[in-house]
């Protein structure tokens, strides 16, 4: 990945020898994080439900829905098999497919889907990957989490 069109200065070996997993790394903030870590020399893996968008080239791409425990485990197994673990975890996945209308129209099922993707995926990745990071002393300050928006759209 070239830094020619990147608007900020980059230390090319800042993340050298670091294995990074960025959830939700194919769009928006996640895509920007993948790009920055890659430009800094990191080996970056990312995940999406849909195919990898054209032009993106992470070191490892896993197409998987991480809105379930099984989906998260599939990703964890693949990262452990291919890389033996990670050094940095960035939980960036988030979003909602809930209908407009806010609390009046949201069913328990919609809330559960939103919680599975926006909260429980990060909890499951942390629980599965942080112990190995801590054992290798690569963790502690190397896990970043954010909660995506919860399904609270207002009617139009």
SSE series: EHEEHEHE
Biggest sheet layout: 5 strands, parallel
Averaging pLDDT over every residue, what do you get?
85
Strand content: 5-15%
Instruction: Give the neighbour order of strands across the main sheet.
Output: 3-2-1-4-5
Shape: globular
Total count of strands: 5
Number of domains: 1
Count of runs of 4 or more consecutive helical residues: 3
CATH class: Alpha Beta
Low-confidence parts? 147-156
- Radius of gyration based on Cα positions: 16 Å
Range of helix content: 25-40%
> What's the CATH superfamily, by name?
NAD(P)-binding Rossmann-like Domain
Tell me about this structure.
With about 160 residues, the chain is α/β, with parallel strands linked by helices. The chain has one domain: Rossmann fold, CATH 3.40.50. The chain has helices at about 30-40, 70-85, 110-135, and strands at about 20-25, 45-50, 60-65, 90, 145. A five-stranded parallel β-sheet has the order 3-2-1-4-5, with helices on both faces. Helix 2 (about 70-85) runs parallel beside helix 3. The protein starts with 18 loop residues before the first strand and ends in an 11-residue tail after the last strand.
Give short descriptive properties of this protein.
35% helix, globular, alpha/beta, five-stranded parallel sheet, Rossmann fold, 156 residues
List the helices and strands and how they pair.
Elements: E1 19-23, H1 28-39, E2 43-48, E3 60-63, H2 69-83, E4 88-91, H3 108-135, E5 143-145
Parallel strand pairs: 1-2, 1-4, 2-3, 4-5
Helix pairs in contact: 2-3
Explain briefly what this protein structure is.
This protein is of the alpha/beta class and 156 residues long. The chain has three helices and five strands.
């Amino acid at each position: 990945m070239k830094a020619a069109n990147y608007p900020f200065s980059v230390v090319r070996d800042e993340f050298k020898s670091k294995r990074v997993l960025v959830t939700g790394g194919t769009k928006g903030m996640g895509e920007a994080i993948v790009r920055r870590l890659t430009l800094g020399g990191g080996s970056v893996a990312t995940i999406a439900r849909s195919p990898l968008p054209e032009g993106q080239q992470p070191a490892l791409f896993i197409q998987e829905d991480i809105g379930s425990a099984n989906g998260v485990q599939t990703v964890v197994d693949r990262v452990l098999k291919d890389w033996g673990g990670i050094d940095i975890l960035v939980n960036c996945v988030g979003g909602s497919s809930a209908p407009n209308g806010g609390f009046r129209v949201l069913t328990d099922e919609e809330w559960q889907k939103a919680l599975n993707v926006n909260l429980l995926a990060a909890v499951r990745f942390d629980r599965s990957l942080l112990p190995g990071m801590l054992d290798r002393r690569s963790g502690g300050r190397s896990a970043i989490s954010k909660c995506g928006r919860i399904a609270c759209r207002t009617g139009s």
